[in-house]
Design brief:
- Chain A: It comes from Dehalobacterium formicoaceticum.
- The complex is a heterodimer of chains A (about 500) and B (about 325).
- Chain A is mainly α.
- Chain A has 23 helices and 2 strands.
- Chain B contains 11 helices and 10 strands.
- The relative contact order of chain B is 0.17.
- The chains are: A mainly alpha (about 500), B alpha/beta (about 325).
- At the A-B interface, helix 2, helix 3, strand 1, helix 14 and helix 18 of A face helix 1, helix 2, strand 2, helix 3 and strand 6 of B.
Chain lengths: ~500, ~325
């Protein structure tokens, strides 16, 4: 890596014009992120044509700003009204919403913003120094390694199962079943679609998330009309220095998890944020505080999903391989400007690459500066009477579900899962295992089938390749530890795992 | 400064549009061909935003307004089921010409032959073909194989265990792999991937021995690959050193084509307006330069010619589909 290139990149990115477009991108991205359902993917796709009036450098700076901004913005509604509009914020909502209910919306929003900043910036440092080397690490991951990684990710589920293991597993299995609806990715046959065209394209997980979390929450609150949802008074709005120091190790841990998993195409922020959350719970001296309003439970997923964002740029810039749908759209943007990401991009378009990387550092600062002053404004939202807030949340939830694919069908999905969410709450089935398995389901199945194709049906393939063997061993150990602690000390663990006890 | 204001205004108006659920269509009586278009035309894209089909349509979009009375093109992503969701949406759209969409060959042929067909080839009115993207037989850059003959020898040595990556099942790649096995008299182990990106990673990482790739998909990483043969009639100007299958005595020609279509009952006068406008765009030198820049092999055919190609395809793949038991419609 060449420092003079990075410096000249900063020189380019810091021109007033480029700064302005970076700012506009961050602003548009934040707005897109705050609106439920409108995540980074649709945000970039919608705003992409508008950038075509610009020359390549400011246009791509702006698109990257939209991407980062949307990753930041997604946490706001997750924390305040329990609408994780994007998969990356599902884990954030677990503790963030509890904090908001306790009057700690301010510190929760601040923890999310600062953690995003720290992890996003550290991730960029990783991108700056190691992009070409790290890209080759991602290549070591073939279908068997992905399958082993999915098993590892699934070992997280056991820690999200709540009081009853059985109920948690019911939720997890349901998640897998929902992931199977639609046309199957390998042989193209449709499953559970009953000839319905809407079901054929699968059930969109954003609608499911919005339904289970936001709509379900409103249905439950409607049962006791009049009782205030936000019981406590709105406390201070920012983090104390002590809290920041308490959160710092979390930010670093989640950066590492998010960045390295982000290098792997297909490992989305939805997965890494859950894994970072799980790690925090495992290393914490007080795991019982998770799910009840733990600041680390907000900082970890937010940090991880921003670090994943930075990590994802490594395979994108080095090979032209997008890690997820949002980066695929960004790749489309690159190509529209005649830039072919790939091994030669760093040579052929060095000025552009370094300007974009420099602009991402600047973008992270812009986002922090943009978001911190907004916290009081957002936090006051919880003072809006619930009778006014609830219909607003419902409307935004439905718009969000609709805007992913512009299908009324998805609004129906959100309503149905709203009812399911409400029912789950009544009978104490946790919703997070369902969501995690829904997210992991497709890639789990695809990589399993690809691996078995490669090996002519022999499962030995998973144990004969070093990386997949190690991943499987780690998954096994984690699972064993979780189960051991669970059965050895059922009392304490019941509290620790009482995810949705409120 | 003006550009900035314009951009900011555009962002605001798009957000407003989104909040109102994207406008919605006013009802106007169809058939007034002379006035077509007097409002935005809706373009269905059957694959994800940012994918090859989308990027190609975006290049069309760049020149759209000047050929279509300053009316914009609006993009509608109906993704799923290997394009089948979007393709079906095109056939089921209103016939006023305000909904058209991108289609891919042989995807539509194979889907129409599938037991789960949701449309027939006859349900489309073809506007034009814009891209002909040949398939290539690709191995890692450092592979000892240098020709189709080496590939055949290696496949025979591995006795059916040689893995070859393709995108999806029941797709152009899948059919191409089956055709190759037939023509070369070898057995291969097919490993289907969900998209060109993960297929490319798998080959680069050595997780499959070879792959079938489209020119457009592999252009990005030319230095990482070795191309054993290209499945076109003649060598391609972008890869002049890569011999065709024919040069290596294998009668194999295989490609993916992209084009545009409307529902079959569209007013013929409106269809003509669409066909004429597309022709002007597709023969514009600036457009062609853009296409080369994004690595999409442009190849314009008018509506009738494209329809002919589509029908020939169906005839070609039908026996193969039947032979490998993929056709369960009977």
């Amino acid at each position: 890596m060449d420092f003079s290139m990075l410096l000249s990149g900063f020189a380019t990115a810091l021109t007033p014009e480029n700064l302005l477009f970076g700012f506009l991108g961050c602003l548009a991205g934040t707005l897109v992120g705050v609106l439920p359902g409108l995540g980074p993917t649709s945000g970039i796709a919608i705003l992409l044509p508008l950038t075509t009036v610009l020359p390549p450098i400011p246009a791509i700076i702006m698109l990257a700003g939209i991407y980062y901004g949307a990753m930041y913005g997604g946490s706001t509604t997750a924390i305040l009204v329990n609408i994780p509009g994007e998969v990356g914020s599902v884990a954030t909502a677990l503790d963030g919403y509890q904090l908001a209910k306790q009057g700690k919306a301010g510190p929760a929003l601040a923890a999310a913003a600062i953690s995003s900043f720290v992890a996003g910036t550290l991730g960029l440092v990783g991108l700056t120094f190691f992009a070409p080397t790290l890209a080759n690490v991602a290549l070591q991951f073939g279908p068997p390694e992905y399958f082993a990684l999915m098993i590892l990710a699934l070992s997280v589920v056991i820690n999200l199962t709540g009081r009853s293991l059985v109920k948690g597993l019911v939720s997890a299995v349901l998640g897998f079943l929902i992931a199977m609806v639609g046309m199957e990715s390998v042989t193209g046959y449709s499953r559970f679609t009953f000839g319905n065209m809407d079901l054929m394209s699968g059930i969109d997980f954003i609608s499911v998330i919005i339904g289970l979390f936001a709509v379900g929450e409103i249905f439950s609150n409607l049962e006791n009309i009049g009782a205030p949802v936000y019981k406590a008074k709105l406390e201070r709005l920012y983090l104390t220095a002590k809290e920041f120091i308490y959160l710092l190790p979390t930010m670093i841990r989640s950066t590492i998890v998010g960045f390295f998993l982000g290098l792997l195409p297909g490992c989305s922020p939805g997965v890494t944020s859950f894994m970072a959350y799980d790690i925090e719970k495992r290393v914490s001296k007080h795991p019982e505080t998770f799910g009840k309003g733990e600041l680390r439970g907000v900082a970890a997923p937010e940090g991880a999903n921003n670090a994943t964002t930075s990590g994802g740029f490594v395979p994108l810039l080095s090979f032209g391989i997008p890690s997820g749908p949002a980066l695929a759209v960004l790749l489309g943007g690159f190509m529209m400007y005649g830039l072919q990401p790939g091994p030669t991009l760093f040579e052929k378009n060095a000025d552009l690459v370094w300007a974009v990387i420099a602009s991402m550092y600047i973008g992270n600062v812009i986002l922090l500066v943009l978001n911190l002053p907004l916290i009081p404004m957002w936090a006051r939202l919880v003072k809006v009477p619930y009778s006014i807030l609830a219909p607003m949340v419902l409307v935004f939830s439905f718009i969000g579900a609709y805007s992913v694919r512009f299908k009324l069908f998805d609004v129906g999905v959100a309503i149905i899962f709203g009812l399911i969410g409400w029912l789950f709450k009544k009978i104490e089935i946790p919703t997070t295992p369902l969501i995690l398995c829904l997210i992991l389901g497709t890639i789990f199945e695809t990589s399993l089938r690809q691996s078995l194709n490669m090996s002519h049906g022999s499962i030995a393939i998973f144990f004969s390749r070093p990386i997949s063997l190690v991943l499987l061993a780690v998954a096994f150990v984690l699972l064993a530890v979780s189960l051991y602690t669970r059965f050895k000390n059922p009392e304490a663990i019941q509290d620790a795992l009482a995810e949705e006890s409120e | 400064m003006k550009k900035w204001v314009k951009l900011a205004a555009a962002i605001v108006s798009v957000s407003a549009l989104l909040l109102t659920g994207c406008g919605g269509n006013q009802k106007t009586p169809g058939g007034e061909a002379v006035n077509f278009p007097d409002k935005p035309v809706n373009m269905i894209i059957a694959f994800t935003a940012g994918g090859s089909s989308d990027v190609q349509a975006r290049i069309i979009d760049k020149y759209w307004k000047q050929e279509f009375k300053d009316q914009p093109l609006t993009f509608d992503y109906q993704v799923g089921a290997g394009g089948q969701v979007g393709f079906t949406a095109i056939t089921k759209a209103k016939t006023d010409g305000y909904t058209i969409g991108g289609i891919n060959v042989p995807h539509i042929n194979l889907q129409a032959l599938s037991p789960q067909a949701t449309y027939k080839i006859e349900d489309f009115a073809f506007i034009c073909q814009v891209v002909k993207d040949p398939n290539l037989l690709v191995v890692q850059a450092n592979s000892p194989m240098n020709s189709v003959a080496d590939f055949v020898a290696e496949a025979k040595k591995k006795d059916g265990k040689m893995t070859i990556g393709v995108v999806g099942t029941f797709t152009a790649h899948h059919i191409a792999a089956l055709q190759l096995m037939d023509l070369l008299g070898i057995e291969l182990t097919l490993v289907p991937f969900t998209g060109a990106a993960d297929e490319n990673v798998a080959l680069m990482g050595g997780h499959v021995d070879a792959m079938i790739g489209n020119l457009n998909d592999v252009m990005r990483d030319v230095s990482k690959y070795k191309f054993l043969a290209i499945a076109s009639e003649e060598r391609h100007p972008w890869l002049k050193d890569v011999p065709t299958f024919k040069e290596q005595n294998v009668e194999f020609v295989s490609d993916i084509r992209r084009g545009f279509a409307a529902p079959k009952d569209i007013d013929p006068a409106v269809l003509q307006v669409l066909r004429d406008g597309f022709e002007k765009i597709c023969t514009n030198p600036d457009y062609l330069a853009d296409m080369e820049q994004i690595g999409q092999p442009a190849d314009y055919l008018n509506g009738e010619e494209f329809a002919e190609v589509v029908n020939t395809y169906t005839e070609q793949v039908k026996p193969l589909v039947e032979k490998y038991g993929l056709d369960k419609s009977n």
